[in-house]
Amino acid sequence: MSRSTILASFVALAVLLGSVPLLSTAARSGSEDEAEEARARLAAAAARSDLTGENGRPFVLRARIWFWQDASTSAAGTYTLTWASKGEWRDEIVFRDFRQQRGVGADRSWWRRNVAHKPLRIIQLEELLDYPRRLDLADDVKLKAIGQGEGARETVDECFEAKSSRWTRDIFCLHPDDGVLTLGSYPTGHPARLVASRHEYADYRPWNGLLVPYRIRFVEATKPALEIEVAELSALTDPEPGMFAPPDDARSTPWCADPTEPERTAKVRPIYPESARKTRGEGTVTLYAVIGTEGQVLDAAVVRSASPDFDRAALDAVKGWRYRPAMCGDIPVERELSIVVSFGIE
């Protein structure tokens, strides 16, 4: 019988396997030039459509949301973002009996919702809307052009690969004419059995010198999961006094313009469930958690289940992980996080 081992990893976006060939000095120089050009192209794409960036002006955005339950059934909700500046904004998601509000105001970052944990589809929705930040890549990410591919706007796009580790390889595609983002591909799950998720951006329209996508779609594997359609985008005038301040019942932390993200410093290895070992079962569990000001994992909950045994093993392990907390200058602050734990057999 072959030996079973756990492959459990904290994954923001897990992706394709690959190897890196040795390069000559000339090849490395060409590769570095190519990477620099790719980074500049992605940064330009982000700036061209970033409503909340340096070129942004106060606005109100209202959108309709569809959460797909299967290929033919969806449920509708609404999303509203009121933005005055990086230090004053709020948004709201309403979907059936779910309601969430977030914002920044009075030097506080805050959120409140009518359930204890952020559901998986809401996590995915927020990631889908935050596309300019996805294009702001860390310095250690390796970039290269990978030719052309079919993008969300049904035209031949220019695509780039962003690789930050052996397991992490994302794809970004830009429209060849106006350079806007059409596709982000983020495979996730066990490295040997990846599930590709796609963020598709289409129907770009001009607004205050920017190009804004009015249709955004999240496709998981081959199935649509989320769709956003902008219904209104207008200038913000005369916001109500105090509308950005945290409500009394909101959870809040000190706000700063450029907080750091939590960094894991200690990891407890999950125990592979005996029930799964017998059947050679595999699975991926997604957790919601809050990283506290002392780096502890708080409020951990399963938002995507693999099985009761995998869920329990993932929760038990992650509760023992420790992080360097998010920081606002010298002040540690709480930060919500999604954590993916993959189980597999080698």
Map the helices and strands.
Blueprint: H1 25-49, E1 59-68, E2 74-85, E3 88-95, E4 98-105, E5 108-113, H2 120-129, H3 131-134, E6 142-150, E7 156-163, E8 169-174, E9 181-185, E10 197-207, E11 210-220, E12 223-235, E13 251-254, E14 263-266, H4 274-279, E15 283-291, E16 297-304, H5 308-318, E17 322-324, E18 326-328, E19 331-333, E20 335-343
Antiparallel strand pairs: 1-2, 1-12, 2-3, 3-4, 4-5, 5-13, 6-7, 7-8, 8-9, 9-10, 10-11, 11-12, 14-17, 15-16, 15-20, 18-19
| Mean pLDDT value | 86
Assign the CATH architecture of the largest domain. Answer: Clam
The CATH topology assignment of the largest domain is outer membrane lipoprotein receptor (LolB), chain A
Total number of helices: 5
According to CATH, what is the class of the largest domain?
A: Mainly Beta
Structural class: alpha+beta
Describe the structure.
By secondary structure, this protein is of the alpha+beta class. It has two domains: 26-254, Lipoprotein localisation LolA/LolB/LppX (outer membrane lipoprotein receptor (LolB), chain A, Clam); 263-343, 2-Layer Sandwich (TolA/TonB C-terminal domain). It has helices at 25-49, 120-129, 131-134, 274-279, 308-318; strands spanning 59-68, 74-85, 88-95, 98-105, 108-113, 142-150, 156-163, 169-174, 181-185, 197-207, 210-220, 223-235, 251-254, 263-266, 283-291, 297-304, 322-324, 326-328, 331-333, 335-343. The chain has a 13-stranded antiparallel beta sheet, with helices on one face. Strands 16-15-20 form a three-stranded antiparallel beta sheet, with helices on one face. A two-stranded antiparallel ribbon has the order 14-17. A hairpin with a 5-residue loop joins strand 7 and strand 8 (169-174). The radius of gyration is 21 Å and the shape is globular. Residues 1-28 have low confidence and may be disordered.
